[in-house]
Amino acid sequence: MKKHNFSAGPCILPQEVFKEASQAILDFNNSGLSILEISHRSADFVAVMEEAQTLSLELLGLKDKGYKALFLQGGASTQFLMVAYNLLKKKAAYLNTGTWSSKAIKEAKLFGDIKEVASSKDKNFNYIPKSYSIPDDIDYFHCTSNNTIFGTQMKEFPATSQPLICDMSSDIFSRELDFSKFDLIYAGAQKNMGPAGTTLVIIKEDILGKVSREIPSMMNYATHIGKDSMFNTPAVYAVYVSMLTLRWIKSKGGIKAMEELNNKKADLLYNEIDRNPLFKGFAAKEDRSPMNATFNLVDDSHKETFDKMWKDAGINGLNGHRSVGGYRASMYNALPLESVQVVIDLMKDLEKKI
Ligand code: PMP
Questions:
Q1: Has residue 6 been placed in a domain?
Q2: Any binding-site annotation on 190?
Q3: Whose Cα sits closest to atom 2 in ligand 1?
Q4: Best mutation site among 148, 191, 193, 323 for ligand 1, i.e. most ligand atoms within 8 A of its Cβ?
Q5: 183 and which of 204, 330, 335, 339 could share a cystine (Cβ 3.0–4.6 Å)?
Q6: How far is the C-alpha of 46 from the C-alpha of 29, rounded, in Å?
Q7: Cβ of 188 less than 6 Å from ligand 1
């Protein structure tokens, strides 16, 4: 039986994608070869890479606007240092909204002076800081659009005259934004885009070439741009499955359609969290993430009962992250509304039982 998968990442992908991706392991494009045994230089795979790059830019509304799409390895965590390696001359500003922002700050400090413009650490990152100012004498401003662990999401992005860099690992392709405001966007594939193993980097070319340090080839965005994301062997299968998922997003009506469904799912669940006296939401209401809903039991003594209920109902991955406790329902693009309804029904059942 297919489980209701609320895992935070790697996570659920569309069933259609799983089917097509498994077929390609046996026979890719009726070639008599598995996708796992072909050269990354073969015409069939080069076409996959090109389509994945084109679809990414197209879905984000960034085609023909001076951006390149790269599919790199090393996870979003490698981007924490690549961003600084390639863009930090002297000073950069970072907004600290959680574990991942903190890790990005730590890496960037190896390359220059980092100004943390604001942090929500005082309240265990349950909100997004709003009133802060960004200095002018910086090389770029970095933020994390969606905080996977704490369940907060930036609804607005600050205006800055300097390049705007964003880690969108856990909400890319989930909501409409003016993506042209951003100069560099990165996202590990393993949420809304595909399996673990590749990281999408969308980069405005004109922000490069400003630092004077020597950059090792693999760490240099220019290297990967120059070789169309084929400088070394890319994560062939991860890029292929990402491409299938991007096709799926497009066929369903693009980001707009994803956002409509994501908002429906999130509204349903958050309404129940607020209505049900046994539960309380973790994140500040105005900053709640539609991707990752974090909530706790008011009385932890019901934990054993509730955990048994959801596990028996075929739900996977509802446990909260250790730094928040309680529960986290990750509702990425591919999670059906019916799965959210199952959790809500269980929350109501618990209320009746108690
Ligand atoms: N940023 C965010 C917002 C994340 O959620 C994660 C991982 N879940 C990362 C960065 C790190 O990604 P990776 O494991 O691909 O390095």
A1: no
A2: yes
A3: 169
A4: 148
A5: 204
A6: 13
A7: yes
**What is the domain extent for residue 304?**
255-353
**Letter for the amino acid at 216?**
P
The CA-based dihedral angle spanning residues 9, 14, 19, 24, taken in that order and rounded to the nearest 10 degrees: -70
Q: How far is the CA of 139 from the centre of ligand 1 (A)?
A: 23
d(Cα 95, Cα 117) in Å, to the nearest integer? 6
| Residue 273 CA, ligand 1 centroid: distance in Å | 26
pLDDT tens, residue by residue, 292-303? 999 999 999 999
ipTM score of complex:
0.99
The residues annotated with a catalytic role in the active site are 100, 167, 191
Residue 62 lies in a domain: yes
Gap from CA of 300 to ligand 1 centroid (Å): 29
Is residue 349 a known part of a binding site? no
Report the Cα–Cα distance between both ends of the chain, in Å, rounded.
29
Q: Which residues pair with 92 in a beta bridge?
A: 114
Q: Note the pLDDT tens digit of each residue in 232-269.
A: 999 999 999 999 999 999 999 999 999 999 999 999 99
CATH number at residue 181: 3.40.640.10
Q: Beta strands 4-5 and 279-281: pairing type?
A: unpaired
DSSP bridge pairs for 187:
200
**Of the candidates 94, 98, 63, which has an alpha carbon nearest to the alpha carbon of residue 169?**
98
State the DSSP code for 200: E
Mutate to test the pocket of ligand 1, among 7, 77, 146 (most ligand atoms within 8 A of CB): 77
Cα–Cα distances in angstroms (integers) from residue 69 to residues 53, 201, 237, 240, in the given order = 5, 6, 17, 15
pTM over 0.90: yes
The CATH number linked to 311 is 3.90.1150.10
Q: Kindly state the tokens that stand for 126.
A: 């349950």
